[in-house]
Amino acid sequence: MSETNPLKRAADKVADALQSGPTGPEDGIPGKPGAESPSVAEPTEPREPLPPKPDQGGPATVSPTGQPTGADQARTAQSGSYLTDAQGVRRYDTDHSLKAGPRGPVLLQDHHLREKVMHFDHERIPERVVHARGAGAHGVFRSYGTAANVTKAAFLAEDVETPVFVRFSTVLGSRGSADTVRDTRGFATKFYTSEGVFDLVGNNIPVFFIQDAIKFPDVIHAGKPHPDREIPQAQSAHDTFWDFVTLHTEATHHTLWNMSDRGIPRSYRTMEGFGVHTFRLVNAAGETTLVKFHWKPRLGVHSLVWEEAQIAGGVDPDFHRRDLYDAIEAGAHPEWEFGIQTFPDTPDQTFEGIDLLDPTNIVPEELAPVQPIGLLTLNRNPTNFFAETEQVAFHVGHLVPGIDITDDPLLAGRLFSYLDTQITRLGGPNFPQIPINRPQAPVNDMLRDGFHQTAVHRGVAPYRPNSLDGGCPFTAGADMGAYIETPVRVPEAAKVREAPESFGDHYSQPRRFWLSMSPVEREHIIGAYTFELAKCYEQAIKERALQTLANIDPELCAGVAAGLGLPAPEPTEPLADVEPSPALSQVGRIWPADGRIIGIITGPDGDLDGVRAVRQEVLAGGMVPLVVAPAGGTLGDGDDALTVQRTYATARSVEFDALLVAGTPGVGADAYGARDAKAGRPTVQQATPDPRVGLLLAEAYRHGKAIGATSGGQSALEAVGIPLDAPGVVTGDTASAVLQQLTGLLGGHRVWERFPSAA
Predict the structure, then answer these.
(1) Predicted TM-score (pTM) of this structure
(2) Measured between alpha carbons, how far is 533 from 548 in angstroms, rounded to an integer?
C-alpha cells in the first residue's frame, strides 16, 4: 500500500468542492434532495426531466462500434415533451384501453395496449445463475506505471487514466436476496482501455472451491437452495452444500475463507478483490511473467460480526449497495490499489513449491509481496440500474495485448462459459453493443446481423480476403498493437481426464490460513462452522465435516465439535508444517478513517452548537456524519437548523462505524411498543435515554465499535451499563474533543479488546 495522508486527501476533497461552487450545510450528506425539486401539484406544462444528481453518470456516449459520438449523456435516453409509442408516434392517452364504449369489452385492435403490456411482460431478463445480486459504479483507474517493465498493456503505462465500471455481487442468492449473507462476493472490473475492453472478473476470496471448471455446475447446484423447497435463500447453511464440500475436499480452503470474517464484509469499500487465477504478462520485449492480481482497499479489510450481518439482513437487505451509493454521493469515493504478485514463468509454473495453476492455492504475501501498480476510484453512481448494472457483461476472455492466460483448468472453462451466459441473458450475440458494454476503442469485427444488431454497417464484404471493400479490414501485426497469444510450448501427453499430482494437497493451505488468524478471528470461524453445520439435518454430514476440520487443526475441530455436541475425531493424515501469513489477518493494522460513518446522537435539548461544529469536523476529516434524533425534520431554527438523517425508530447500530452522544438525547413521541417494539415500554412516560438509544449503544458496544459521549451524554452510556472506562469508550467536555479520539480508534476498525477469546 502506498503511503498517503488520509486527512490531507479528505481536506483536498473539501477544498475542491469549495472551489467548484457554493456549498450548503447538507453538502457531503448522502440522500439529500436533488438540485431541483419537483412541484407538489401535477405539472400542466412540459418541462425537462429533473437532472441527475452530481454523483450520477451513465456509460460513455460511443457508437455500437466504439466511436465517440459527442452526444450529451442526458440526451441519450427519452427525449421530447410528449408521450409517444416505441416508433415515435405521439399518443393522446395511455391510461385507458380501447373499448367498445366506456363499459364495453376491450378491443383486440388496441395496438398501443398490446405494445405497452408486451414490453412490460419482457422488462425482466433472466437473472444471472450466479452473482445475480449485485451493485455497480463507474470510476477511473490511474496507472502508476510500475508494471510497465512486465507488461506492454497500454492502460498500465505511467499516469494513463482509464474509465472503468465495477460490479460487486454475492454468488448464491437471487436478485431479491439480502446483501449481508455469508457468501463469496464478486469483484468484477471492466476497463475501457484504448486497446479494447479488459475484464478482470474476480472475487473477494483469492481461491475457489474447485480446481477444474467441469465441477462448477456441481458446486453451484450444491450451494443453491434445496430444489425441493427452494430454501434456504442465499446461504450455504444446509445439507447439500456441506455434503459436497466434505466429500470434495479440494473445496476446504475456500470453505474456510467463507467461514471466516471474509464471508461477511462490512462494505464493498472495505473488501479485497482477487483475480483468483494466475495470469501471464508480456512486456514489449516479449518477455513473460506470471502474476496474480489483487485489489487492496484504501480503508483496509473490514468485516461485520455475525450478529450485525443478521440484523442488517432484516432491517436493511440493501445494506452494501446503499453504503456504496451513499459513499459516492457523499464524496467519500471508494478506492482500491491494484497490485500484482510476480513469479518467474518457469516450465513447471510453480513458485516455492506452490502450484500456480491450482486455483485453490494462494501464494503468501511474505513470499511474494503485492506490488502496487495503480489506483481505482469509484466516483459516479449509475443513472439506470437495469441499463448499466444489470446489463453489464463480463468475460475473462476480454483481454488486451500484454495480458494472457495460463493453463489453469478452471480458467479454461470460464473462457467458454461466460459467452454462453451472455447470449442467454442478453438475447443474442450483440451484447457488446449495449451502451455499458461498448468498447471505447474503434471496432471493425466483420461480425454481422443477429438479434439486437444496432450498428448500421457499410460495405458489402464482411469477409477476408476481399477486394470489394478495398481489402478492409486489414490484420495488424505486433508493431500495430495486435493481440498475439504467447507461444507457450504444450508438452506431449496423452489425452486424459486427470488432475496433476500437485493438485492433491487439500489441507496445507487451509492450515496456513487458520494459523494466520488472530484469536478473535479464530473464534468467529468456529462460530460460523458451528452455525452452518447445526443447520444441517444429516448427522453423517456433520461427522464428515468434523473429520475435515481435524485434518486442518485440532483446536478448530474441538471448538466446532463442542458446539454440535459431537466427539472430535482424530486427524486421518499428519498436520501440515506451514508458516503463518500475517497478511491474511484483518486485525492489527491501522487504516485511514476516510468515508467512515459517524452517528451523532442528540435531541432538541442537546448541544446543537457542538453538533454543528463536530458535524463540520467529521466532513473535513473525509468521514460522513449522520445526525440521529427523536424525530425527523430539523433541530434548531433558521439558517443554522440541523437536518436529521436518522430517527431513533429508523437507526440501527450496524450502519455506523462509531457513535457520539452529544448532550442528553431526548425521548421520542413514538417510544412505546405498539408503534415501535424496539422502545419496549408501554408508555412514553419513561426516563431518558429513549430505549432505542440504549439499544443503539448496547449493540455498538457489543460489536466492538468506538463510542463517545460529551458530559451531557455520559448518563446515556451509564444507563445501559457501558463503563465509561471501558476500552474504546471516550468521554470529554466537547464533541470536538471526543471526535478526535474516536477518529484514532476507527483506524483499527473495531475495539478488539472487547471480544473475549477462549484462548
Answers:
(1) 0.90
(2) 13
